[in-house]
Structures are given as C-alpha cells and as structure tokens.
Amino acid sequence: MKKALLVLEDGTVFEGYGFGAEGEVFGEVVFNTSMTGYQEILTDPSYNGQIVTMTYPEIGNYGVNEEDVESRRPFLKGFVVKEYWRTPSNWRSQGDLESYLANYGVVGIEGIDTRALTKLIRSKGAQKAVISTEDLDSKSLLKKVHSSAGIIGIDLVTEVSCDEPYDWSEGTHKWDPLEEDSKTAETFKVVAYDFGLKQNILRKLTDHGCEVTVVPSRTPPNEVLSLDPDGIFLSNGPGDPAAVAYAVESVRTLVGKKPIFGICLGHQILSLALGAETYKLKFGHRGANQPVKELRSGKVEITSQNHGFAVDSDTLGDDVEVTHINLNDNTIEGIKHKEHPAFSVQYHPEASPGPHDASYLFDDFVKLMKG
Known about the structure:
The protein is of the alpha/beta class. The chain has helices at about 40, 95-105, 115-125, 140-145, 155-160, 200-205, 220-225, 245-255, 265-275, 360-370; strands spanning about 1-10, 15-20, 25-30, 50-55, 60, 80, 85, 105-110, 125-130, 165-170, 190-195, 210-215, 230-235, 260-265, 280-295, 300-310, 320-325, 330-335, 340-345. The protein has 10 helices and 19 strands.
C-alpha cells in the first residue's frame, strides 16, 4: 500500500493510500451518494474533469464486469473511497476494481474520512483538488492546485464525444434467458447528439423501438436533418453548458423542426437554446436518491442524478413550462416548450445506477414522434 495525498484548494489535506494507477491528477472534487453502481459512475462521461468521492464506505466488493460500463472508458480524473475491497465476490464479477482503474490510468485514494470530506464539500462547495502518489509535500501540492484549471467556461464535451457517427441497436440487458424481448414493433429513427452519452440511454431508446444514429457533438444541424429522423435526442455530458455554445446554436436551429428530448446536459443545452441561462450549483446533485416532483400530477419520483449546473428559472421565457422540480432545493428538473415538441429533464431516467421511476419519459418521447 503506497501512501497518497488528497489536497483541496482551501488547504485541507487528507492522507490515505493509493490504489489503481499511480501518479498525480487534478480536478474538481465532488461526491456521489449512490450505495452501488460504482462502475457505471466511473464510466459516466459526465464526470470528465472531476475527482469523484463515494459516500458509501465500502467500494469494490462486487468487482467489475464488461456489461456495466456506460462508455468506452472512464473519463473521471480521480476516485476517492473510504475502504477499497480487494477480494470481490459476485457471480457477475470478471475482475477487481483496482486492476480496472490501473488499466485506464485512473488514480485512486482510499483510507480517508469520506464523511468529513463530504461535509466539507457541502459546507464550502465543490472545489479544485489533487490526488498524488508521487509528490507527498502538501504545500507543494496546494500551489499546484491553485494554478490548475477549473471547469467553468471549459469545453469538456469534445474530449468525451465520439469522433464519427455510428448506429446503435442493442437493447437493455436480460438477466433471465427466458425473458421476452422488450423491444416494440413500431420503429422510429432517432439521431442522438453525443455530448458524453451513457449507453443505457441508447439501450432504453432501442427498447422503445428507436433505430439510433449517434453523431458527434459538433455535428451541424443540417447534417442531422439530412438523416430525416423522427426525433432528436440530446445526451448528458460533462461541465459547463455555457462553454458549448456550438451545441446551443445547433439545437436552437433544430427546435421546431423535429421532436426533441434532452437529458442532463442536453436539458441545459435545450434551455440555453430557448433563451434561458444556467448557473453553477454549490456542490451539485450526484446520487441515486434525489426526489423530484412532476408538477402537473403531483407525483414524486426518486431519481438518479449527476450534474453541477442548473437552469435559472427567472430567465425562462413565457413559451417554456417548468414540468419538474427538485424537492431538496426547488431547482428546475424538467421543462417543455408550449408550442414546439421539445422537452427535457435534468435527471437520468435511464438509471444505471438508480431507480426506474422516470422511465416513462422514453414513452413520452415516442408519443411526440408518433404525433
């Protein structure tokens, strides 16, 4: 076990032990409250530029496998846990977490007080930090943190988006070999913008009869329309939505042309395209237990979330209706356009990890395309 340090920009130092890759990484330190799903969290491209802390104390106990990945590789900068479990035990496990992190160059630190770290982030907000297994001089590391780049105003999407368009046809995994195929008979052609796309979104769309073509984040709107889709999907992704002005301009052109459904960063991009503004949250929403209220019915959903920015309700125009709010802080969780077939949510109805309360939103997208 090799010693490692986690140093925050406010000068707080945590001493622990390195696991995974060795080295020195910088990013915004945040926390996720999910009890399970660490592999899906690791491979969610929305964490690009961040050091992720798991609040659940024991991580690695069920190993890793090839089916639970959400993208081609982990994009987060670092991983922080209370206790890394070195002997995984699960019938689906194909390897251990430490080897997985090392293989992709992800630096981890274990053995620190993650409860204290989480409370600090909640009181002071997410901040820049460094994990190092090389330089163990806290003063030296603090200087490096102060000179490191943050995430505000930085385009983190281009790094995680695909390079070329591709087609997707895989549905959700079936654990029971006798389970019937969940795909619907009717088909719809969907073009999905990859701003940092999670694969389970594509699986859910496929289950709902969508033939999906995924395109890079900088694909011009005329190229999307030339594919003659029945609908357009705007994916999740990392960082500051205001930093991807090219995506906002593309979506602004597409509104009213085809039905549009956005998730997470896609929700923020759609909101910006409709004239709203966004702002950075103090410590964001990251976990699988966020309560969201659907305003028309009053129904409360427990949702999976991962975002550090939110849409400013005071900047929404009269042509936009707020459909969902977060019951913890009343931030906007969903909108729809009153005239055009376009809607979005801030949370993750595809889960992975998390509850499936909001999976009906994929049905809503299909209904728009039918209309």
